[in-house]
Design brief:
A hairpin with a 3-residue loop joins strand 12 and strand 13. The protein has seven helices and 15 strands. It is of the alpha/beta class. It binds arginine (ARG). Arginine binds next to loops.
Length: 274
């Protein structure tokens, strides 16, 4: 079964956690008195980058900026589909300046950036499945932004309501296993969603892999799949077993130091889809 899963090589934008810290609390995982070991955070992050590179994925990096401790969470900076970039507008004032730095990187790489008019936190809440954009709301990105994203890309945007503050971004509760037309599938933790949104996900993905609360609390839903390998938190043990049963190859990468800010593997990874 494993041999039927075919990886697609990706291009990822990342930002080293050189200035990583937990200085403010904008989600339930963050406690400003927590000690953060920046050297360990950097070491763990480099392990993620090496894992991507050793699986053939291309890495681009944005220069980290002092005073922006959450800038490591590159996924929040934009959503990129078909070479078109929809930028970010952060909910928290502390994170707002990040957008300028990411926009400058995109512009230097030859992309125009569409600026959102309403709060929009990039791939944190906007998940491209290969068919539609699944779009989270409830804590950060607004429904108004979902409409803007649909208008900009001309792809269907499906609004989903998040109800548990631990899973404040869609990418903490759901990830795409396979974005190809044939095997298109996702993994999610149902209780993170409102009843209506759960019903929508059941209709769209009757064969989805469902995760437990333990998997979700271990940042197991904040994973990155290339269609075969799933870069996943080692703490999400049960989910890794299920993925293996479904023919995927779990690649454990521990970002425990970054979990202190409420982020994991996917949060550190912005996919640039040409
Ligand atoms: N401390 C950051 C925040 O609360 C973490 C962001 C995590 N990013 C993500 N894509 N879920 O904004």
């Amino acid at each position: 079964m494993s041999d039927s899963r075919v990886p697609r090589l990706r291009r990822f934008l990342v930002c080293e956690p050189r200035h990583f810290a937990v200085q403010y609390a904008i989600n339930p995982w963050m406690h400003p008195d927590t000690h953060v070991d920046v050297d360990l955070a950097q070491e763990q992050w480099r392990t993620l980058i090496s894992a991507y590179e050793s699986h053939g994925h291309r890495i681009d990096a944005v220069e980290p900026v002092p005073g922006l401790p959450d800038m490591v969470f590159a996924a929040n900076s934009a959503v990129v589909v078909g070479g078109r970039v929809f930028g970010s507008l952060f909910h928290a004032p502390e994170r707002r300046p990040e957008s300028t730095h990411y926009d400058l990187w995109f512009k230097s790489a030859g992309y125009d950036v569409q600026r959102p008019l309403s709060v929009c936190e990039g791939e944190g809440d906007l998940v491209w499945t290969g068919r539609y954009v699944l779009a989270g709301t409830g804590f950060r990105t607004t429904r108004e932004a979902h409409r803007e994203v649909q208008e900009f890309f001309g792809h269907p945007v499906i609004s989903l309501t998040l109800v548990d503050p631990h899973f404040y971004h869609l990418d903490t509760a759901l990830f795409v296993l396979d974005d190809s037309a044939v095997g298109n599938n996702i993994v999610y933790y149902p209780e993170a969603f409102s009843a209506g949104s759960r019903a929508v996900l059941e209709r769209l993905y009757p064969d989805a892999v469902l995760a437990t609360r333990d998997d979700a609390m271990a940042f197991g839903l904040n994973s990155v799949s290339d269609g075969r390998h799933v870069f996943i938190a080692p703490q999400a043990e049960a989910l890794a077993v299920r993925l293996d049963e479904h023919g995927y190859v779990p690649v454990p990468v521990d970002l425990s130091e970054l979990h202190k800010a409420g982020g994991g593997i996917k949060c550190c990874t912005q996919e640039i889809r040409s």
